[in-house]
Amino acid sequence: QSVLTQPPAASGTPGQRVTISCSGGRSNIGKNPVNWYQRLPGTAPKLLIYSDNQRPSGVPDRFSGSKSGTSASLAISGLQSEDEADYYCAVWDNSLHAWVFGGGTKLTVL
Amino acid sequence: QVQLQESGPGLVKPSGTLSLNCTVSGGSISGYYWSWIRQPPGKELEWIGNFYDSGSSNYNPSLKSRVTISVDTSKNQFSLKLSSVTAADTAVYHCARGKQWLAYWYFDLWGRGTLVTVSS
Q1: Could you read off the pLDDT of A11-68 as tens digits, one per residue?
Q2: Which residue of B has its CA nearest to A39?
Q3: Tell me: the pLDDT tens digits for A74-107?
Q4: How far apart (Å, rounded) are the C-alpha atoms in residues A87 and B89?
Q5: In whole angstroms, what is the distance from residue A10 CA to residue A89 CA?
Q6: Which 8-state DSSP code applies to residue B84?
Q7: Contact A98/B60, CB-based, under 8 Å?
């Protein structure tokens, strides 16, 4: 049972807007900022969003993050074929005293 | 551009010690914290631990008794040692860099990962 719950799969067509959710609890998302990562096949995970909604330089503004209560979301607008990847949320858990990760969402661009 | 590269044996015997290195190229090892994260086949990512620039470290409580992370600034490298391994420790092991923003930390850079299999 994952501490953070993500849908295993999501899909969209080019140009569409897709949202990926990450559901946690009061000891993690409810207390600490959420980070999002993208992993393309055979590559290192790449930071997309940090501290709930901050984009590192170089990440397109098509990617955005938000949080409400104990859930966070990653939104991808203007979906492109190169966005096809696995997406993970991560947050520090105050009860477990550990970083915890979501199970990952495989995004397919149809 | 800073890159992280994991290296080490791909096969470790049960009850042995898993040892991995992460080489930091293109940048300094100072000013950040350095982490190991693993992903067993078909399972989610699991944080192993961090080593801070100050010399302190903290580990996942579930692995703490078996883990040591250290940094060799002269080689721009940090390492992971995991003792008394079992088949459950079979995973892709990633090294990662931790960066601070305001009061918070996040992993801003990852290595591609290396598969370590525990088997006799």
Answers
A1: 999 999 999 999 999 999 999 999 999 999 889 999 999 999 999 999 999 999 999 9
A2: B112
A3: 999 999 999 999 999 999 999 999 999 999 999 9
A4: 23
A5: 14
A6: S
A7: yes
Q: What does each C-alpha distance from A51 to A26, B65, B97, B100, B114 come to in angstroms?
A: 16, 30, 16, 10, 28
End-to-end alpha carbon distance in chain B: 39
- Residue A81, classed as helix, strand or coil, is helix
b/e for B99-113, b at 16 or more Cβ within 10 A?
beeeeebbbbbbbbb
Question: Which tokens in the block code for residue B17?
Answer: 């010690």
| Tokens coding A57 | 């330089």
Pairing of strands B114-118, B91-101: antiparallel
SS3 letters across B2-22? CEEEEECCCEECCCCCEEEEE
What is the distance between the alpha carbons of residues B34 and B32, in angstroms, rounded to a whole number?
7
| Cα-based distances in Å from B37 to A63, A66, A78, B10, B15 | 24, 25, 31, 16, 21
Alpha helices, DSSP H, located in chain B: none
Interface test with chain B among A99, A101, A105, A106, by most B beta carbons within 10 Å: A99
CB atoms within 10 A of CB A93: 19
* A92/B105 touch (CB, cutoff 8 Å), yes or no: yes
Instruction: Please state, rounded to an integer, the average pLDDT across all residues of chain B.
Output: 95
